What does this fold into?
Amino acid sequence: MEEFEEYLKITFGVKNGTAGSYKNAIIILNNIFKQYNVFNFSGDSITDISDAGEIYSLYEFVKAEEKKMRVGKDSIFKYGDNNRPSYPQKGFCSAAVRSLLNFREATIQKKATECVKLTNSTAQLLKNLEGITNISDTETNAEVHQRIGQNVFRSILLEIYRGQCCVCGLNIKEVLRASHIIPWAENEKNRLNPENGLCLSATYDAAFDKHLISFDEDYRMVVSPYIRDFYTNDAAKEYFERYEGKQIKLPYKFSPNKEFLSKHRDKLI
It folds into this structure.
């Protein structure tokens, strides 16, 4: 509970009241689940749940129960010592569980980043990441599992590329993308493989995704003839002609897999 409380304070600040409200909402839910144990929960607090998939299921459940309460139907909020009905009525309880899910996902990303720092073998890294990102495998959790995987992949690439676009060196985190060389949907085995990724700013990510640019066996940018048709435009020159044939800035470990790049290059428009 203490780590989650600290996360709430950092995320929302101490003064605006949200952190305290979410803490109280968790206490309300803890009291309820001592009497109504739908998830076979046996801990002191739902903040002890480490499985992000279970937390997501709990979030969906609490949200549905809040909706029941608001329309006057029987709900779990009749259990426990709930002297603050405004919390579920205003959605604070589900929002608190959602924040708990965000906290768990952030923890997973942190563990993955630390793992990549300490591991030099791709095979060992993937094995370790499988354990770190593992959640309960249900159809409901499929979306969560994908989001966790994609966020972990992004965290890893930001780490090994030192938070910079490998083409232009842009270091504004908010506009950087973790680009899969072989798309997420096409190769489950290499979804989290850092050798299957490039850290690209949004423009280059879009061009790479549409096979308008690629990279050769020496990691030099290859530009589609389609893009070259726009070299009469100053912006196109600045974004593409300037870097055509130039080698990208390689990560400090887990360089892009050349076989993956070859397959991507074969699809260049």
Observations:
- The first strand starts at residue 176 and ends at 180.
- The mean pLDDT is 93.
- The radius of gyration is 23 Å.
- The chain has eleven helices and four strands.
